[in-house]
Amino acid sequence: xxxxxxxxxxxxxxxxxxxxxxxxxxxxxxxxxxxxxxxxxxxxxxxxxxxxxxxxxxxxxxxxxxxxxxxxxxxxxxxxxxxxxxxxxxxxxxxxxxxxxxxxxxxxxxxxxxxxxxxxxxxxxxxxxxxxxxxxxxxxxxxxxxxxxxxxxxxxxxxxxxxxxxxxxxxxxxxxxxxxxxxxxxxxxxxxxxxxxxxxxxxxxxxxxxxxxxxxxxxxxxxxxxxxxxxxxxxxxxxxxxxxxxxxxxxxxxxxxxxxxxxxxxxxxxxxxxxxxxxxxxxxxxxxxxxxxxxxxxxxxxxxxxxxxxxxxxxxxxxxxxxxxxxxxxxxxxxxxxxxxxxxxxxxxxxxxxxxxxxxxxxxxxxxxxxxxxxxxxxxxxxxxxxxxxxxxxxxxxxxxxxxxxxxxxxxxxxxxxxxxxxxx
Length: 425
Ligand code: LLP
Fold this sequence. Notes:
By secondary structure, the protein is α/β, with parallel strands linked by helices. The chain is built from twelve helices and 21 strands. The strands form three sheets. Strands 4, 14, 15, 16, 17, 18, 19, 20 and 21 form a nine-stranded mixed β-sheet that branches. α4 links the parallel β6 and β7. The protein is globular. This is Diaminopimelate decarboxylase.
């Protein structure tokens, strides 16, 4: 990861703490987060997007400490459930700096949002409009944005592309449902339409699709003014900024993204005779991902005719991403020096299915053996937040490191925790 530094020929440190020490103290598997790296990434966003609202996308990773870091760094928060919202607000996050998303917000989600006073709710379907308006107390107005589908294909995998009409999110510009929803919202006295939103997808590594989105959304802002005489003051371009998981992979360049989006927005608005709306972005992965490492202990090494299977004490329950999206990771041996040449191995998990593969094409020293410690970089986003209870193994703990000190943020899910919830017979 950006933050792991060598502390000798055979070990790496994160936040100044050797990974071997963390594994000894907290056990494995374990997620380790570099607090300084998270904060540094928040600051890089504020520099790249001055004057914009930067909402950290909580779905990538959330715990109370993360809420506090993001708040202290001056970011807003994007949540998509009452669970994320309640965790943030009970930690002290200001609700007016929170935006609520969801293609199917439950009555409980909407009740929590209105009760706690979230700043913005992003409308994702026509049916949601009347339902939301009816829930807003008389005499008050809820600020909303409308999520539109601009018809732009971008994103690292089909399952995380959301800019085209063949997926469930948002309201299409092409078929007119976005325009229809805009008219409906403008007719609701308890809703205040502050702007448009779009999220193209995730793990996008080039700037171009964002610029196309800016152009399409300016076009729609212009039509809204023409048809309704309303100038919408906000434009939220979502998240999706890609990071490198393995050496040599591309990552989206933040500074260039910020500069080019602002230029496109300024030029497009000037041409359309519109004032420049206040910009918002919603990065998740690019803030949390590279700041995290997951530690595993090797439990078995099996050499077959065609493969070397290195099995670790975690797997698809703590990282479903390789199984879901076929993505690559670059595990590393830590804790002992090896003179053996690297060999291609398949790093697999402990779960009861053959698809439980963490890294199909890893390179590890040929003398890899049970008891070895492996570190998998770029594990801060969409690991714990997508962890499951498969095989009742319990979810790993989250440890924060900073300035040479480590502390437990989220404790390991114990077998007692799991059994406690099972109350029927
Ligand atoms: N805003 C909205 C409305 C979103 O739906 C998302 C992600 C984000 C922001 C943040 O996107 P990011 O900057 O993190 O790419 N589980 C998948 C990623 C799913 C992303 C879902 N929405 C993965 O592990 O790659």
